[in-house]
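Worked example 3 (structure in, sequence out).
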């Protein structure tokens, strides 16, 4: 694997290139290059592109082999905070694949984000295929296949007293196979200032889906100390 990080400076209008090979990574699929990627994070940056295919990496080979002693770190070590114009391109051969009964394992979670696009993705998991949290605006999901799992969910919402709404979410050309739910909006029965506005679901096909469309405003997964207020979040499609 060869990964380049390009950062374009707004002040000098120049491009800085960081090659992870210079930090000890080896592209031979044999030597563990985890250390070169640990704690790789970006904060307060504008205009970053990550280019690389992640093929032949030790981590992925170990996971595909089903080993329980794989190198730590991996994709979860890559994080973006307070950043804009992030582009991840050329990442192929990575599968989101977990058992249908695996607990609390969302495939992709989007929250407090704007203008996120997810294309050409297949996700198999035990929880939400895509989980859409508070503060998500202008989210576009297209050509996605989900199953097994809990489908695509907006929420859960109304968990916190002060909470941003979800606005302008589009799901297009989606296929659900053997999922518990298809398209779901879930919120706790609490008076909150959150909302769902402008949710669009287009050209969706479902096979063997238990609950194709769910709007649950009494969400309480464990059925313990469940709130029972009448006022709930506003939902407008």
């Amino acid at each position: 694997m060869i990964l380049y990080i390009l950062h374009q400076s707004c002040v000098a209008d120049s491009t800085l290139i960081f090659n992870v090979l210079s930090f000890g990574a080896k592209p031979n699929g044999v030597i563990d290059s985890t250390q070169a990627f640990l704690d790789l994070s970006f904060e307060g940056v504008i205009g970053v592109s990550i280019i690389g295919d992640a093929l032949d990496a030790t981590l992925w080979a170990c996971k595909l082999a089903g080993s329980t002693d794989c190198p730590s770190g991996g994709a979860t070590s890559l994080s973006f905070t307070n950043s804009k114009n992030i582009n991840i391109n050329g990442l192929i051969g990575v599968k989101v694949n977990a058992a249908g009964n695996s607990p609390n394992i969302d495939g992709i979670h989007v929250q407090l984000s704007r203008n996120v696009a997810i294309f050409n993705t297949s996700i198999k998991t035990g929880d939400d295929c895509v989980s859409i949290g508070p503060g998500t605006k202008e989210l576009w999901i297209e050509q996605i296949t989900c199953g097994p799992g809990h489908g695509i969910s907006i929420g859960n919402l109304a968990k916190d007293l002060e909470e941003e709404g979800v606005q302008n979410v589009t799901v297009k050309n989606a296929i659900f196979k053997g999922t518990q739910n298809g398209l779901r909006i879930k919120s706790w029965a609490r008076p909150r200032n959150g909302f769902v506005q402008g949710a669009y679901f287009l050209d969706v096909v479902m096979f063997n889906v238990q609950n194709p469309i769910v709007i649950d405003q009494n969400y309480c997964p464990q059925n313990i100390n469940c709130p029972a207020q009448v006022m709930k979040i506003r939902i407008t499609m």
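Notes: The domain at 96-237 is CATH 2.160.20.10 (Pectate Lyase C-like). The mean pLDDT is 78.
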